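Hey all, sorry for the wall of text incoming. These are the three entities for the joint prediction.
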Amino acid sequence: MEFAIKTLVFLPLIGFLIAGIFGSKIGDKASQIVTTGLLFISAALSWMVFLDVALDGNKYPVTLFNWVTSGTLSFDWSVSVDALTAVMLVVVNSVSALVHLYSTSYMEEDPHKPRFFAYLSLFTFMMLMLVTSDNLVQMFFGWEGVGVASYLLIGFWFKKPTANAAAIKAFVVNRVGDFGFALGIYATFLLFGSVEFDVIFANVGQYKDATMSFLGHDYHALTVVCLLLFVGAMGKSAQLGLHTWLPDAMEGPTPVSALIHAATMVTAGVFLVARFSPVFVEAPDAMAVVTVVGALTAFFAATVGLVQNDIKRVIAYSTCSQLGYMFVALGVGAFGGGVFHLFTHAFFKALLFLGAGSVIHAMHHEQDMRNMGGLLKKIPFTATVMFIGNLAITGVPLLSGYYSKDLIIEAAFAAHSGVGEFAFFMTVVAALMTSFYSWRLWFMTFLGESRADAHTYDHAHEGPMFQMRFPLAALAVGALAAGWTFKEAFIGHDVAGFWNGAIDLSVKVMSHGESLPIMEAAHHVPGAVKLAPMIAMIVGLLLAAWFYARKTDLPQRTAKTFNLLYDFLLNKWYFDELYDFLFVKPSFALGRIFWKRGDEQTIDGFGPNGVSAAVAMVAAKVRKLQTGYVYHYAFAMIVGLAAIVTWFMASGISSGAGH
Amino acid sequence: MLSLSLTELAFYLFAFVTVAAGALVISAKNPVHSVLWLILAFFSSAGLFVLMGAEFLAMLLVIVYVGAVAVLFLFVVMMLDINFVELRQGFLQYLPIGALIGAILAIELVVLGSAWHFGPDVASNIAAQAPAATEVENTKALGQIIYTDYIFIFQTAGLILLVAMIGAIVLTHRTRPGVKRQNIAEQVARRPEDAFELVDVEVGKGVPMPTKKG
Amino acid sequence: MNGELNLFVALPEIIMAVWAMALLMLGVFQGDKSYNQISNLTIVGFIVCAIVMLVNVGGERQVAFGGMFISDAFAVFMKTLVYAGGAVVLLISTTYLKDHKIARFEFPILVMLASLGMLLMISANSLMSLYVGLELQSLSLYVLAAMNRDRTRSTEAGLKYFLLGALSSGMLLYGISLIYGFTGTVDFDVLAQVLKTEGASNIGAVIGIVFMLAGLAFKVSAVPFHMWTPDVYEGSPTPVTAFFAAAPKVAALALFIRVMVGAFPGLMHEWQQIVIFISIASMLVGAFIALVQTNIKRLLAYSSIGHIGYALVGLAAGTQAGVESVLIYIAIYLTMTLGTFASVLTMRRSEGMVENISDLAGLSRNNLPMAVALAIFMFSLAGIPLLAGFWGKWYVFLAAVEAGLWPVALIGLLASVVSAFYYLRVVKIMFFDEPAASFDGNHGRSVSFVIGVSALINSPVSYILLVAPLITAAGWASKALLF
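and here's what came out:
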């Protein structure tokens, strides 16, 4: 089994190296076959490992070799697998394999296919490094690695200026989060003296009440650690405040969006918090922050999703919103619920993205839903799978979203805390909106009259059976069945056996007079609470149907009536403008100063702008020092003298203090 | 417990006053005050000389510097009507950076001073050992080395003063036309017939203009 | 300290002092109309003193005045240059001074007293004699700078020079007092002994050297103590500027070497750093700022700053070869500078002297010999191979490279490439620009004579006429300094 684990982790790396180095030699076809084939092997192995871990409750702490030993700091390269990792392995490798396959067709016309597949495999490898780590530093390596891969893939069409800008934005915003994460690592090491998970988790109890002193104040150490790590998680998982990069990242190719920005990388933050659940449970304040941020994100992203017209952006905001759900679950202590939603969400969101990709493919790279409509007749297969995806995400009973999402809403209620109730309210409202925008998307795309030009519409067609429809079908199966199949293991009666200590299950709340683990308590909430998301879902569906299937002039009229609100939502709550004003403009101003003053005047002046011109310029500048004032001259002498004296005092005292 | 002998007390007093007065010379707003502070600085330095047993130098300092140089300064400052407010305008502008550089230099010199140590062979290096004050009064002691060991320096200093005199004359002395000067030799050589002339005045005609001589 | 006076060793200086005072009396009784007579007698005085020095004193190492005064081969070499500089300046001054109605009999006497100060500087063997020599020289120079007292520029130059010179003297004195305080002596020989054992552990002496170097750097106008130079050069009467550029530079450099090599060999590592710094800074400032000058005297001011930088490269090497190269350099520099300033003195039209570079336009068509001579000086200053200036740079950089200071040599080479630009620009203006009005040519025969001789010894035959004898002499002189 250990061999299988090592193999499944390194196969994508091999794929990356082959496609990346020899891509141009072996050709497009071979690159695609190699990377995709390796990923499928990897995915198969993942399922094997998952079943082994899930059914038999095994753990595989596989250490490859020691990485750093420096004083008390010591950690290894490892590919350790426990239940949480196994879940991530399955998600990452399955979706990645399907996306690889899908991309062979989707990227048909692209001239740089080997590079694309190399990046995809690189990303997968980095993601595996992240999830299989047994210490924070290797995790950080994977964390940055996926960041780089994401940057490369968002900016894959580097000739598109918007893609470049989006790639940079994603990178920069993530740097903010990464900075928090890095600080979190330092704080952890400071507190625990180790960055290895086993050591940290074993000693949490010991540092329960420890404090950290900063600027004269003492702070609860675990809260500090958790909040810093959570800042990192917020960046990667696009939570409110650091979310702005995710919608823009849709500039990348659609399969990339499906893989990175729906199923895997953006869930790294969730994974991080779940991984650190033993620490988080000792920091209730940090948990509350996680809950609130998650709830706000779920609500905020859903509102923005209501009015977007770009098919991918709708799904992007949907992703953002669903990540908020996951954080709510983590925040109230239902870690299993959060990871379960991560698991199911990966299937239906990848499905929706690939479906959207299929639509875009059919419409010749048209992404605006206002120019679609009536595609049901043209691409019925895509319409069907996206219908399934919608059913899943909106939480129709028995489909996968139903189990995970409803559990989150119920757990939020069951927490019986202020933040829990707030989260409950927000997530229910968000559920209504989720239903509305999901169905709005479907109605606008597949029903009604075509708003596209006739030529495009006439030529709309499904993608190739194997390469594009098979992944869709596979994901549809996941969306249909993943929830029902695994609900007992993730959140039901088998939790203890399934998780086997990989996440914390100790959070208990009062329910009907007895103290129950929160995930169990979530099953015992009042009926009205259980019904609430269902009702919200149905209301959302009906509203969408009314707006976009029956009275199609209504949306425009509503938008006109509530134009302020509409603009507010359409402009994403003006977050980009705010950041532009607060950070980007000042940074650019600063940069311009350095550029003009530092670069153009100093560096360019000496370099490319011609030595002779530079010489004359320097001379003219220095001549200005020659003012003719005696006191300037005297001052220059004194400064020169002081400089030399300082030089000797500095160097002389260190060397000449021997007597 | 800090115990100071009277000499030490006097030393620190004079030293403090010297430094403080020096600071006030450059910081006083009114240039006349600056000169007065300068005089105080000279006086307290003279006190320091006395403490070291160099009475002659102390008196020299008072007579030459206070009596001549500083008074000359006072005259010059009072005669030249310089607008010092205007001169000081650049002062504030450069004060921060100037103060910074000055402070850096001052700190370094203080550090340096604290590293001072009297080397073991320094005493033997001293070129012209001054005789003990009890043996010979210090005017005589000065004379003994100035005109022997330090004749070279002394003479060269004399040359410098000569140059200063030449310079002062070259730069300021002018032979102006129309300046009346006393010429004693001419006055002495004068005869009555050169000075006046007897003229017979005819009635109603007045005196004719005398013809001008030399 | 030995108590002997050994007045004989200082005979040339004593003669000069008495000579100057005698001429002063002569002048006072005869008035300004005796300018020619006094000037000629001063030149004779220089020659007499030089002969006395060469014949009676010789190159042996002898001390006088109880060790405060030293005469050795190094002093003889440098003093010869000072005598030559003073005499030549007097030769070329007459016409200019008469034109400007400042031909006063004090002028040659002040030049002589300044030269006397330089001689004392060169022969200084203690910090005190160093200081009095320096002050004698400086004070005379302040007066000379302000000689044209009715011209604001001249008085301003004198005042600036005086104020900043006083500041630099203050630094120098402070440094001297630090050194005296930390070592207990002002005698060069004793200092060398003391610091050889203590070395850099005597941080007070190190800082004292820093202050002294600041004061000395002012005198040689090395960066960052150079800022007075352009203003003073421009403002002073041109013959005085010629004097400034020639003899005091020689003397200050000699003092520089004497102090560093004679008194502080034990702290060589320390002063080397400073000398390297100011030498690089001087070369760069001299090269770059000269580019934008339009006044030929300012141009030559920056040129002299740069040349001092090059000369200091040799000193920075800290070896006997290095000092030898400095001696060669400064001697060659003297001939170039005097020749160039003599040429500047020919730039006169009916309305008076002109000083702009543009006034030289088309000189080759009006006065070809003059243009050729000036071109030779420019090429030589630029260090074009086979001219005298090239050999100076060659030996200096060679010594630096041998001492492992190749980065300094490299920067020096770069600076000389940059500076070649403005020297060659002068040549280009003279030969290729549209002719400006021609000069009147009434500059006097002695000026033409000086130009001719300097041009000849700077020309490509310089190696035989100047450089080869110089190498012998400099080698002989530099050996006198104890290494």
